[in-house]
Amino acid sequence: MAITENNLKITATCSSGLEEILQKEIESFGVNVDSVGKNTVQFYTDMQTLYKLNMATRTATHFFLFLKQFFFKNADEFYAKMKQILWEKHFNVNKLIRIDTKGNSFVFRNSHFATLRTKDAIVDRFRENYNDRPSICKDNPEIQITVYLQNNQAIVYLDSSGIPLFKRGYRAVHAQAPLKEDLAAGILMLSGWDKKTKLIDPMCGSGTFLFEGYLMANNIAPNLEREFAFMHWKNYDKKIHDEVKRELESQIISANTQFIGYDIHESPVKLAREIKNKHFPESKINIIHNDFRRINDDISESFIIANPPYGERVQTDNRINDFYHEIGDFLKQKCNPGKASILTGNLEAAKNIGLRTSKKIKLYNGPIECRLLNFEMYQGSKKNFD
């Protein structure tokens, strides 16, 4: 199938466990998804929709435009086939480019050599056609090229997103062990939260759940204001981009949903308040410096969302087990009736919560395999952890 501006072959990437959520997000924009794989969703779309997906999806990390797939027997054939790609069709010679190579091939000793051969092919093609060459820039590139290797096969993409989409721009400084924005949004979608019920994070850290929840409740596209790599493509259409942005802005609503975060540590509370004041000044987000075990506010009939420590910072088995037992007491005594979603990378400790889960979902927080545990608290809740 020939690739045109109205028939772009796209691979979206996401965190492990969020593939089906991302598929639903993409389909909500009228796109027919072709396939879903590990960390990927593949589909065809047009340029206007590609702009919109970059701005509006919450769980994608990148949207890659497929350029070419080929087999190669050696490094010279790899170079020759890379050089055949019409690079000048996609970007001008004065652009700063970055090349990332992933995967493995028996042809190359390491991915760095494949990256160098890709760079040589691009540079030589431009030199032959324009007597000039694009410059390589690792830190602030305008054009990002990604090559996936599998044995003697290469797949070449242009990254339309650039900086990963989870970097929304509101969290310039990350607290210790932060939860990425895309995962926080995905967890909220998987939790069953209805975007209307008061959202409470009793261990909020720098407030990622609260801020992503606010964006969702008010139907605010998470990446309206940022720069994208597609803005440096040769066929970038600013008029269409602006039209898409205005359309997304027109869909923003003013929700009455309340958001409350508590944390025992003063430093992340200070950071969360700074983010709130700078980026969400009109929001109904309240950040409180308090231990969740000492909360006296009425928080029943709320939705509890939390990413408690998994054990790395709570040093002994007994302490982490006791800590999760206290989480269970908090849910049963303070949040009843109500619902809760807890992300944990310590399933043994989580058994001490003492509530039966309504659902368990496998996710990854970085390299850590986790479970999202959904609970429903009501009078007479069953006290067994499945």
Using brief descriptors, characterize the structure shown.
alpha/beta, 386 residues, seven-stranded mixed β-sheet, elongated, Rossmann fold, 15 strands, VC0802-like, 2 domains, 11 helices, disordered C terminus, eight-stranded mixed β-sheet
> By CATH's scheme, which homologous superfamily of the largest domain applies?
Vaccinia Virus protein VP39
- Estimated helix fraction: 25-40%
Q: Looking at the structure, what is the overall shape?
A: elongated
Uncertain residue segments: 381-386
- Spatial order of the strands forming the largest sheet: 2-3-1-4-8-7-5-6
Distance from N terminus to C terminus (CA atoms, Å) equals 48 Å
CATH fold naming of the largest domain: Rossmann fold
Radius of gyration: 23 Å
| SSE succession | EHEEHEHHEHEEEHEHHEHEEHEHEE
Based on the coordinates given, report the CATH architecture of the largest domain. Answer: 3-Layer(aba) Sandwich
* Secondary-structure content class: alpha/beta
Mean residue pLDDT:
92
Number of domains: 2
What is the name of the CATH class of the largest domain? Alpha Beta
Beta-strand content estimate: 25-35%
Q: Helical element count?
A: 11
Largest sheet: 8 strands, mixed
Oligomer: single chain
